[in-house]
Write a structure and sequence with these properties.
By secondary structure, the protein is an alpha+beta fold. The protein folds into 3 domains: 2-51, no CATH class; 72-121 and 191-302, Lysozyme, CATH 1.10.530; 310-483, Muramoyl-pentapeptide Carboxypeptidase, domain 2 (2-Layer Sandwich). 53% of the residues lie in helices and 7% in strands. It has 23 helices and 10 strands. Helix 8 (153-168) runs antiparallel to helix 9.
């Protein structure tokens, strides 16, 4: 976690320098993407470089962020947990090494593929026998027509049904014998042959696409689909990081639309492979850290406690503590200025304050970095939605006394550690002006999460967002408010 913070600090320091230059009047360098201002050309403060826009000189940092930002799903959904899955996957490392050598690819990344595809289970099956099967989840058609593997679908299906019956009856030895028989008629269930088949696929894909990263992306997306994406981008040998991060609803929009159209996580597949690779590294080198991260990643429905572990950030216990934070500038007001910010403040925000002897305004602010990130979300969503807005912010900072009062009448509010009580979290209503605005907001959320800048979760009435604490490069957005 600390190593990630150092890398991110380096990226954000460069952007902060550019932002500081703009505040001195020098302005950012030509071509540097800026955070959008309000439409209509009205004065809205100095230009602010966009720290989340793709920078080829910082590509490694973008990739590292993406691995961290997409890792939550691996911790949350791995069968038995991430540590147990890593233990299963590690059994196949000798076979993984041999397959990686034959394909000339990085063994750690191929091991990550096993983690992601099957969680280390050689009998994994998705979508029936004709669907993905085995340690590396190869489709029957791909296995036969492209990889030259032996797959007798009918016999494999019959054996699979018999195996399931034996397992239901507790006849484990008989089931194991049937599994061995199935491997002879369906080589996808033979771990060595499955890995060899995946190695052949990666070899073919790298020859077609010219890059290892693109070969791994195509494992989920398909070679033809990825070639269509690359042609739309205009550079068929660009890194996937460049294609992905350099495409937004307003920049290389055709590429972004193609990636979004897959709808099956194909666009984020490479980042999940990198996340799986990191989990396997921790399994080998630092199991204590892996256990710590697994506990934080699974504590909530998002990675918010990874961004702010309990005890790492002060919580506001009583209204007086929150008032002191306001006085010290640790909490700043969320402006109710939709025309400039793309955000509207719900009138109900802080409505429970009188019940605990406080004023509603006490609960209408955020940590400066979180406020800046909220302003970024408002600005980008408005720009990508063609000027539509605003988004409605329904909740920001709370103290624990307010939280206790809230949970009495709101079943969605947590009785446990709430990031609202730290000033790092806010909620945005799921009420949108149009489908275009909804899609724009979704893109901004997904991109920021991939970049490990936020964690978010969908609730019945709102999107709950937690900001990371490394958003200092966005603080110049607060200058816009002061200049208004």
């Amino acid at each position: 976690m600390r190593a990630r913070a150092v890398v991110l600090a380096g990226v954000l320091f460069v952007v902060a320098v550019l932002a500081a230059m703009s505040l001195r009047g020098d302005g950012p360098a030509p071509g540097v993407p800026l955070v959008p201002t309000a439409p209509g050309g009205e004065a809205d403060g100095p230009p602010v470089p966009d720290p989340f826009a793709y920078d080829p000189d910082e590509e490694d940092a973008f990739v590292e962020r993406a691995a961290a930002g997409t890792s939550h799903v691996l911790y949350a959904r791995s069968p038995g947990g991430a540590a147990a899955t890593a233990e299963r996957v590690a059994r196949w490392r000798p076979q993984v090494d041999a397959a990686a050598r034959s394909a000339g690819v990085e063994p750690d990344l191929l091991e990550g593929l096993v983690f992601l595809e099957s969680a280390g289970r050689e009998d994994a099956l998705a979508g029936g026998i004709e669907g993905a099967a085995g340690l590396t989840q190869i489709l029957a058609e791909t296995a036969v027509n492209l990889l030259g593997m032996k797959v007798d679908v009918e016999r494999s299906a019959r054996l699979t049904r018999r195996i399931e019956r034996k397992l239901r009856r507790g006849r484990l030895l008989e089931a194991q014998a049937l599994r061995r028989a199935r491997r002879t008629v369906d080589e996808r269930f033979d771990p060595v042959k499955a890995l060899a088949g995946s190695a052949r696929y990666l070899t073919i894909a790298r020859e077609e696409l010219g890059r290892e990263d693109l070969a791994f992306v195509s494992y989920h997306m398909g070679i033809g689909n990825l070639q269509d994406v690359l042609r739309a981008y205009g550079d068929e040998r660009a890194s996937y990081a460049q294609v992905y991060f350099d495409s937004t609803p307003t920049r290389n929009a055709a590429v972004q639309r193609r990636l979004a159209a897959f709808g099956d996580d194909s666009s984020n597949y490479l980042w999940k492979l990198y996340a799986a690779r990191e989990i396997m590294r921790l399994h080998r080198e630092d199991r204590g850290e892996l256990a710590r991260l697994e506990a934080l990643q699974t504590a909530k429905n998002s990675a918010e406690e990874v961004l702010h572990p309990p005890g790492s950030t002060p919580r506001f216990g009583m209204p007086a503590e929150l008032r002191a934070a306001w006085d010290e500038g640790k909490i700043q007001a969320l402006p109710d200025d939709p025309a400039r910010t793309g955000l509207a403040r719900a009138p109900s925000m802080g409505e429970l304050a009188p019940r605990i002897g406080a004023v509603p305004g006490l609960y209408r602010g955020l940590r400066p970095e979180a406020l800046a990130l909220a302003l970024y979300i408002g600005a980008q969503t408005r720009a990508f939605a063609g000027g539509q807005g605003p988004l409605m912010v329904t909740s920001t900072v709370r103290d624990q006394e307010y939280q206790r009062r809230l949970v009495r009448g709101n079943h969605e509010a947590t009785h446990n550690y709430s990031l609202h009580t730290t000033g790092w979290a806010f909620d945005i209503a799921r009420n949108y002006r149009s489908r275009r605005q909804a899609l724009a907001f979704q893109f901004v959320l997904d991109r920021l999460q991939v970049l490990d800048a936020i964690a978010w979760v969908r609730e019945p009435g709102a999107i709950h967002v937690t900001a990371a604490d490394d958003g200092k490069a966005l603080l110049p957005l607060l200058e816009r408010l002061e200049d208004g």
